[in-house]
Every structure is written in structure tokens, then in C-alpha cells.
Amino acid sequence: MESVGDPSVLSKKLGGGPHGLGDPLDRSLRNVEIEVLIPKKMREKARDEKCFDEVKAFNECCKESSLFMVVTCRKENSALKECLNRWYQNEEFKNSCKEEYLSERSEFRRTGIPQKHRDKIK
Q1: pTM, to two decimals
Q2: At CA 53, angle to CA 34 and CA 37, rounded to 5?
Q3: H or E stretch including 122?
Q4: Model confidence over 68-89: pLDDT tens digits?
């Protein structure tokens, strides 16, 4: 019986590299990265860095209002949504998040260490 070559199910593009995790220099994006992972990074970054004051005001309002927060915190909720939407529509912010994602993915492919573990090491 002849060997057919590399028995890997993944294409060379997805399975190559030093740890079999993909080429660290590859900058192409899969649909799941474009539609799910980069928008997730945008949401987290907008929430934690760009709209910090709005998130804080909304959280404080919700804590103070408990059951009536739906009615009581409309103003804070609107301000938060407006801030988040403004950042989601910002092309420079989108590109920044995309570049950050690609950099993290490249580092993962190069080292084999996930981002959350690299953060703990630092």
C-alpha cells in the first residue's frame, strides 16, 4: 500500500506553520473570523476602552434600580448603545481591531500559546 502524503485533514494554509496551527505570516481571513471573531474583539474593546463611562453609568443605574431598570435606565442604555454603534461604524477602529486580531493569531501560530495564557505569563 502506498503512502498518499500528509494525512492531515486541514489544508496546508490552515495546518502548516511551526506548530501545525497555520502559517504565522498568512493574513487571509476565514468567514468565521470576519463575521464572528473580529466583531467580538470590536465589542469587547468598545465596551472596555471606548465606552467605559457609558458602561459604568448604565451598570450603576441598573444596580440602583433593580426591577425597574428597564424604565429607569433608558437614558443610560441609549447613551451606551449610541456610543457602541458609533465605534462599530468607525472604519479606522474596525481596521485596528482586525490588525490586532491578525497579530494575536500570528503570535499564536508562531508560539502555540493562546492569548489568554500569554496574558497570564506577562
Answers
A1: 0.74
A2: 10
A3: none
A4: 888 899 999 999 999 999 999 9
Q: Which amino acid is at 48?
A: D
- Give the separation between CA 8 and CA 15, rounded to whole angstroms: 8
In tens, the pLDDT along 42-56 reads 999 999 999 999 999
Helices (H) and strands (E) in the chain, counts: 8, 0
Spatial separation of the C-alpha atoms in residues 118 and 110, rounded to whole Å: 13
Residue 73, burial from CB neighbour count under 10 angstroms (0-12, 13-18, 19+): buried
Report the alpha-carbon distance of residue 43 to residue 45 in Å, rounded: 6
Distance, in Å, from the CA atom of 26 to the CA atom of 102, rounded to the nearest integer, reads 9
Instruction: Pick 18 or 62 by higher pLDDT.
Output: 62
How is residue 28 written as a grid cell? 487571509
Please say whether the beta carbons of 84 and 47 come within 8 A. yes
Whose cell is 495564557? That residue is: 117
- Kind and range of the H or E run holding 120: helix 115-121
